[in-house]
């Protein structure tokens, strides 16, 4: 249970930064308060249990009966729910419901959180060596028969004909070499699917590798939250 509310508190705080409506912010602030109260209550219960196990000076009427210590104060959320105001009934359940909804929407929330991070560096042109080694295919009748009717180069939009030279990218998309060269002189990706080629910029390649590792960690964290394996931070 502490892990559930720890994870929920983090999600509530992040979500509060993302929403703009005053009513949404107020509702999330209420959920944040509830999560903090729950964590405080669990912590107090843990401390009381530890004190009991360590033989604290608690007095018993006799074995099997309740203690005669003063009754602990009710948590604030329980006091509110007992005052008869329908708006305050099941506040904890409401916070839990919002938390479960946020967990279900992690795929939407996490990208929005990531958008607030540092901007990605501008992609440099594709490596000249990689471009030079791209295969060039000569269009034949047999080749055209495998394509859709009126297949064309996606850059110049001219229909392919026999004996055309087509340069093939690793993603299998093909273009006329004179059409593709100006694009790869400024970009490192396929004009259609954005599949990236290697570049000659070592700093950019190192950044891509770090981002790939970070993305795997983010996916692992998101999966852990979905499966209930909450992490303490």
TrEMBL record:
Main enzyme class: transferase
Residue ranges the record marks as coiled coil: 25-52
EC numbers: 2.3.2.27
UniProt KW Metal-binding keyword: yes
PROSITE patterns reported in the protein's UniProt record: ZF_RING_2
Alphabetized GO MF terms: ubiquitin protein ligase activity; zinc ion binding
GO biological process: protein ubiquitination
Reaction it catalyzes: S-ubiquitinyl-[E2 ubiquitin-conjugating enzyme]-L-cysteine + [acceptor protein]-L-lysine = [E2 ubiquitin-conjugating enzyme]-L-cysteine + N(6)-ubiquitinyl-[acceptor protein]-L-lysine
Keywords from the UniProt entry: Coiled coil, Metal-binding, Transferase, Ubl conjugation pathway, Zinc, Zinc-finger
InterPro entries named in the record: Znf_RING (IPR001841), Znf_RING/FYVE/PHD (IPR013083)
Domain RING-type, first and last residues per copy: 153-194
Listed name of the protein: RING-type E3 ubiquitin transferase
Natural source organism: Capsicum annuum (Capsicum pepper)
Lineage per the UniProt record: Eukaryota, Viridiplantae, Streptophyta, Embryophyta, Tracheophyta
